Amino acid sequence: MSQLIVMLDKQILKRVAVKTTSITLGRHGKCEISLPDRTISTEHARITVIRDDCFLEDLQSTNGTYVNQQLIDRHLLEDGDIVSMGKYQIVFRSEQGLAVQLKRLSLHPKLMDTGYPAWLQIMDGSKSGYIIPLRGERIVLGNQNTGQVLIECSPQGSYIMRETGTMNNYRTRTLAPGDTLRVEEVTFQFHLKDHDANSSNNTA
């Protein structure tokens, strides 16, 4: 079950289990998550649960809703996302398994858009050969219980992998074309569009 951790000044105020299909966040006391702060709108944002996914939507708030410091209108929440509203932060935690994530994120190679700057290729398992496009947004694979990998694009265009193991060890590295990474029992290989194109030209 997913969970929302409400924080103020780095202190945990409460934990809210996501048990319903809709959760409203805002200044009003009738909101499921009430956040008393003048800079927060009466009904600021809403989380809607659709099957295994949780979508965060800004309700045309005055000061906006931010996820990982990025202003959003609608956002598919991933494990570890930090939602900012006024002086509050809400950390989203999900126990969603890798199999569910792959079902949602992966594409058959024939459906691949040539505009993707980078992607992960699944090397084994039932989704072997499928790809996960890296469009610039953050991608999270796995969860904190089984080990988690987070990949995000830096402003310079490089792809940074942050890996958290089950023993709370933490590693960060910049991915290079051909690098492999493993999450649970699945191996992934990193591909960069420009590099792959150059390799094809060199071998032609």
UniProtKB/TrEMBL annotation:
Matching CDD domains: FHA (cd00060)
Domain FHA: from-to ranges: 23-72
Query: InterPro entries, per this entry?
Result: Cell_Proc_Reg/RNA_Proc, FHA_dom, SMAD_FHA_dom_sf
The secretion signal range is none
What the entry lists under PANTHER family is as follows:
NUCLEAR INHIBITOR OF PROTEIN PHOSPHATASE-1
Q: What is this protein called?
A: FHA domain-containing protein
